[in-house]
Amino acid sequence: MAIHDTTLIDNGSDAPSLGLTPPVLSYFCVYNPCLSQSEENTKDQILYYTANKVIPADVKMKQVGLAQALVSVASTFSSQPTQNVHSQKNRMVFLQPEPGFWFHMCVELGIHRRQIKDPKGNEKLVTEYLDTELNDHALSGLLQVAYEQFKLLNGTMTWMLYEDDPQDTMPNRQRIRSLMHAIEEFFSSWIWKWDFARLDTLLFGTVFNSVPTQSIHRANYLRLQAVDQRIHQQYPLLHHCLVLDDKGSLIYHSPSLQLLDVRSLRKYILKRWDAYLLEEKKRCQRTMEKQALEKKEKASTYFSKPSQSAPVSSAASIESTTSHTTTLPDLPTNESTSPSPFPDPAHDGEFLTGMIQDLVQDMNGEERTVVKQDIVRVYLDTSSESQPACMDALTEYILIIYKDPGNFLWSFLLPSTNEAQETLGDIDFYTGLEQLVCQPDTRSLMTMISQDVKNMKKKTMAVSKHYKCFYYDHASLDLKSTAVDSQGHVTMHTMSAYGCPRPFVDPPFPNDILLQLLQVKLDFEVSNPCGPGTEEVYTRSTTNHWIIGKRIYHQQPPIASKEYSTPDSDDPPGDDHQAPPDDSPRQDSFHTSTLDAGSDFSEIYLVAAKKDITMADIEDNIQKIIRSLLDVLHTD
């Protein structure tokens, strides 16, 4: 539910700069009204607060009080909790991840300042607040992703407060301080990295919040599953296995892992992988600088070395100097002929968590390798379909991440028990696990999987010449895209390193198209609140691109319809949605699922330049286009 108000524009800034100012976070807080029992201790309900400038305590309380008042007022008009409040200058976002706990952030809107002349010819400063540049679903999704990651690493906030006494109405101060410390430690290193101007990051990282899966041949998948079973037989403590490639695509996960847990684990594993790559780059840079310094010192020592014999004559001196100078080895001047300054870290396998190797500097400044333990605990949902998920029914595991020589990331989960603790302290455990992962047949299998990935990139590049599209499956959380660069890498940004976009290249679509894609997604959600409804939506962006969204139900829906927006030739491009009659029967047949028809669906979004294709072509060939895209995005 969104609430709008009309705050007056304030042009009273001293010297505002002209041009565009991106949206920024004003403040963020986590609070629980139940933690303050009287007006004297209302500040106790604030578990965490941060702002982009120093805020007095009374202002903090006013902001939290306003947030509670808005939530209370909105609850009288809707049974759904308030999520967004629009004002002239700000966007307020709310999320209740658990009963009693609230995440609340305020984002200052982007600003466009420009000079215009009034009818009298005088210059006038016009300030425009860009409300449409922020999307409610993307902002709400950002808070939801934040909570999922916090719960993965800490468990639920309710469990942290009432672990031993679930019926206790007021936790003790020690538990509250422990929760406050966990929240601060988690959000302080993440929240100020949010980039609200990157709509592509928010769209693909929060709204869809998917698990991009790499398509591989079924035979290779079954062989990888056999490797998982063989590892489990050798080490029964390893309950779950997860394999990602170096770009973050899911290769394999144990069937016992819940998809939502896979999604959260993937984000955290990529964070550790990014940190590892950054450290490797710094280490290589230090090595290069050290080698360059040693080479410089050797050259300086050589030229400053005194002559051992006096010259007989000036001519002999000149001849001797010339002869000696020409014998110096030529230093390479062309960087292309020298080896890469950052060697590929794929030559050796390495554990990223558990018992790891780390480089430290001794008192002489020399680097040496030490072995230490880096224990990472995560909390996963172990409920099944017969036992619905419970908010507090999380199981604590220890996460072991191993990078194999081919840069595939193998992750293993052990239950947090005394036996597991003893196992993690045994170097033989890591040696044996590495030998299982790096067996010749497993290395051969991963090589074939790498070839599957390369073949998929080639197909994707062929299709991307004509269409930009992405495919999202609601049941498996899979997301694939044909928006690729010249190397076949997906240009779509995904969230990693606690909210930072992974370092791919330019976004696949400009913001106006991304906003239209979000609107198409919203049209599907609004028209299908309780089950199958609209199947197709057509619209056109202000940059003259067709945007087509199609929802495919894997169980035949009882009612099918289409919606599209196509302005008349005399009208300017717009995004109005109209529903023409649907006289074509649906004959799509895809895989069956145990999910109900309202939740077992896939979505395909296609973007094509209006100059390359007409609406009539889309209407006539939409089924053919979708099937060809599905053939490319999947491997048998």
Automatic annotation (TrEMBL):
Any GO BP annotation: vesicle-mediated transport
A Pfam family that the UniProt record links to this protein: Intu_longin_1
Disordered as annotated region, ranges: 289-348, 560-595
Protein name (record): CCZ1/INTU/HSP4 first Longin domain-containing protein
Matching InterPro entries: Ccz1, CCZ1/INTU/HSP4_longin_1
Transmembrane segment boundaries: none
Residue ranges with Polar residues bias: 318-339
